[in-house]
Amino acid sequence: MREQLAHYGGITVMIPAALMIAVWLWYSAPQAFKWWIITVASTYSIVAFSKLLFKGWGVSFQTLDIAVLSGHAMNTCLMVTVALSLIARQFNYAWRWPATLVGLSLTVGFSAYCVAPYIHPLNEALAGALLGAVAAVAFLWRIDVVRVNVSPSLIGGGLVFLSLCALVPKYNAETLLNHVAVTVSGAQQAHQEPAWRTVSRHIKAE
């Protein structure tokens, strides 16, 4: 059950979530829309960069037990937290930060118990969650001075759209990242798992 839930943190659901939030902001607060684009582009770039470094050159952090940052965890912490906060604002402006805390609690828990250990080891999931959480709080703090009034019809339409996206087969960008990493680095094939993790697993098995 937890493994199936983890896949909802992938791009099949979370890119539509990012687009949904972008549409809300485009029609309600253009300045906030610009900051949202910057936030999403920055966090996605950091995750992609970590994966290209590892897949192409094998760069990882053994002491932290981290090879890459979890995109599933980052996506969930960023999208769900921001969406909950924006929706809460429409009911009561004072609820925006309590809703943020609820979103962070739920999504960090999701990262720790669903994303890990099925898609990423715990430390990678938590690292991705930390990135998403910091990005969400930074974005919400940045737009705190802006009145974001999203119409109920936009909220409802966005949630219906997101629900439909959640029904389609789940995909990820690993194949594309593998291809880009090999092309850029010149490696014969993309790294899939750090050698030190394989050795550690073998030692524990013995």
TrEMBL record:
Highest taxon of the lineage: Bacteria
Domain Phosphatidic acid phosphatase type 2/haloperoxidase: 69-141
Protein name per its UniProtKB record: Phosphatidic acid phosphatase type 2/haloperoxidase domain-containing protein
